[in-house]
Amino acid sequence: MNIKNTALPLILSTLLTACAGYGPMAAAPARVADGVLTDARGMTLYVFDKDAAGSGKSVCNGPCATNWPPLMVMEGEAGGADYSVVTRDDGGKQWAFKGKPLYRWLKDQKPGDKTGDGFNNVWHTATP
Questions:
Q1: Spatial distance between the Cα atoms of 45 and 37, rounded to a whole number of angstroms
Q2: Residue 28 — pLDDT band, cuts 50, 70, 90?
């Protein structure tokens, strides 16, 4: 028996087993447009200075979240690369970029608007 003929199937089998359950790569929850992160509709995403990067939670809840709607994780989505998931006070799941939760601004009306940048010196456009 030739070792080359038996090694290849063994290597392929090992690789397939190691990769099982990973499935296709999910699309990132945000895109980059004009130097800032945007949602799927092209709306600017923001970060909040009062959120601690890597804490796994958002401190913008209640009326704050009404004005700054969180970028929510849909069922079946999972983090990866620079994106992670944080748990909100209400139990909902929100996207974070490099550990900072992502939000939209209620007063942005169309894709490309950045009217929330610098708001109260604690809200900033999310940048890659």
A1: 6
A2: confident
Contact 81, 87 (CB under 8 A): no
> How many residues does the structure list for the chain?
128
Q: In angstroms, rounded to a whole number, what is the distance separating the alpha carbons of residues 107 and 96?
A: 21
pLDDT by residue (tens digit) across 83-93? 999 999 999 99
Nearest residue to 102 (alpha-carbon basis) of 78, 67, 68: 68
Alpha carbon 102 to chain centroid, angstroms: 7
